[in-house]
Design a protein that fits this description.
The protein is of the alpha/beta class and about 210 residues long. The protein has 8 helices and 7 strands.
Length: about 210
């Protein structure tokens, strides 16, 4: 089995951490243009940019897995061979991937051949983990604004009290403020509980005006 992967250097490192069945060949590429030059492959992962890589090419009907967190498969009206996953920093190396698939059977066969665990979820913005983590980060910003505690103390309390691998502000630094803000904004369109905290909005604006 041959799997083509378009990924950043950091994403490649995370994927290489995962165990891969010996009968699977991972072919890393630098642009989607290289796919057309390949004659033999069984699946494609487009992970580098959830906006530019979410094309509608069918790629001969082979299973296509795209990095798409904020938008959904139905938003993009993607072909039946497409599935979406979360390729935010830190998510690819997880032992189990969340996935939305137009064809769960075909997608599941690819992941089974790779030897990677997958759980299928509803086609909604944020999937599950990203939605939960973004809300935790948002609540941490509210707590900081109310002077409940400091950034370091909030991170430490969450790790010790809930056994989280990272504190909310550490997660924000790993994932990126722009990713968190974009998801919260999308979720807040239908549920105002997800409105970004004022301090988070302020940090986001500073990020884009550096």
């Amino acid at each position: 089995m041959k799997v083509v992967i378009l990924a950043t250097n950091e994403q490649k490192k995370e994927i290489e951490i995962k165990n891969v069945n010996h009968n699977v060949s991972l072919i890393f590429i630098d642009s989607t243009g290289e796919i057309e030059q390949l004659e033999d492959f069984d699946a494609i992962f487009l992970l580098r940019d959830e906006l530019s890589d979410a094309s509608s090419k069918e790629y001969l009907g082979k299973p296509v897995f795209i990095h798409l967190v904020v938008d959904t498969l139905s938003d993009k009206e993607l072909p039946s061979n497409y599935s979406r996953i979360n390729a935010w920093p830190g998510f690819l190396k997880r032992p189990t991937w969340e996935m939305v698939a137009n064809d769960e059977h075909a997608a599941g066969l690819v992941l089974k051949e790779l030897g990677w665990n997958v759980v299928f979820v509803k086609d909604e913005p944020g999937l599950v983990a990203a939605r939960v983590i973004s809300m935790i980060i948002n609540e941490a910003y509210f707590a900081l604004e109310e002077k409940v505690s400091t950034i370091k103390e909030i991170d430490l309390a969450m790790k010790l009290g809930t056994n989280y691998p990272s504190g909310p502000f550490e997660w924000k630094d790993i994932i990126g403020i722009q990713n968190i803000y974009s998801l919260l904004q999308r979720l807040s369109e239908t549920d105002k509980r997800y409105l970004p905290a004022p301090l988070l909005q302020e940090e986001y604006r500073k990020f884009y005006h550096q």
